[in-house]
Write a structure and sequence with these properties.
The protein is of the alpha/beta class. Helix content is 31%, strand content 26%. Helix 1 crosses helix 2 and helix 3 packs across helix 7.
Length: 249
């Protein structure tokens, strides 16, 4: 079974048809740059461009980098334009895609769902937290495999700042930090999250997950197991498609 998955990020909008039996992309993904400012109309145009690249005419699952309530309404917009707040994203995207059925889910929640089903969290019980390090820091919290949606742990305060302003991969790039220096910031962030939630497992996702060998060994003093996401930066696309399949079914 194939469903289209699409991941909206602060820097790029990427998607592909997903093979839900394998939990992997059925075709090579296609990406366009996220417009700046990332307004609803601008992002919707990018989404349309990605979907039309494949001539897709079925259900579409989309991720959004912020809190999504009722599978539709946007409540936060930290890394996109603030005009997103209170937007009915499902109606906007469906209209722009010519009436295709659309499902919208928080980006980290989508990545977490995919990792728990097909990847590093498969068959893991207890408390598991996936963290995506990219333009910001997204989070997905699972208790015995069940998702607690819209946790937004990237906005925890760390040394007087939003954690993502200090420990996202964008912060590493903007401040030209070495892997070791950045890993020490990530370590402080993980220690704070661990103090609050005592997880058995941290899954490190986002684009930086494919470079885990460059920084994970610098992180010390965390009691929880720390592993890279197995689906890497495709997890959001796969998870979005999974959620769309649930709604379509």
């Amino acid at each position: 079974m194939q469903i289209f998955g699409l991941d909206i990020g602060g820097s790029g909008i990427k998607g592909a048809p997903v093979d839900l039996d394998r939990g992997d992309l059925a075709q090579e993904r296609f990406k366009v740059l996220t417009p700046h400012p990332a307004t609803p109309d601008g992002v919707a145009d990018g989404v349309k461009q990605v979907v039309e690249h494949y001539g897709w005419t079925g259900p579409v699952g989309l991720t959004f980098p912020g809190v999504v309530t009722d599978g539709s309404t946007i409540r936060t917009a930290a890394n996109v334009d603030r005009s997103w707040i209170d937007t009915d994203a499902r109606a906007l995207f469906s209209e722009r895609l010519g009436g295709l059925p659309v499902t919208v889910v928080n980006d980290a929640d989508a990545a977490g769902v995919a990792e728990m089903h097909f990847g590093a969290g498969r068959d893991r019980r207890g408390t598991v937290i996936l963290l995506t390090f990219g333009t910001g820091i997204g989070s997905a919290l699972f208790i015995d495999g069940a998702l607690v949606p819209n946790t937004e742990l990237g906005h925890l305060e760390l040394h007087g700042h939003d954690a993502e302003k200090r420990a996202s991969s964008k912060a590493k790039e903007d401040e030209d930090l070495s892997w070791e220096h950045w890993a020490h910031r990530v370590q402080k962030y993980l220690a704070h999250v661990e103090m609050l939630f005592s997880p058995e497992l941290f899954i490190v996702g986002g684009g930086v997950s494919r470079k885990s060998h460059k920084f994970l060994h610098y992180i010390e003093g965390i009691k929880a197991e720390i592993v890279p996401a197995q689906l890497q930066n495709n997890a959001g696309i796969v998870g979005a498609a999974m959620r769309a399949a649930e709604k379509d079914g």
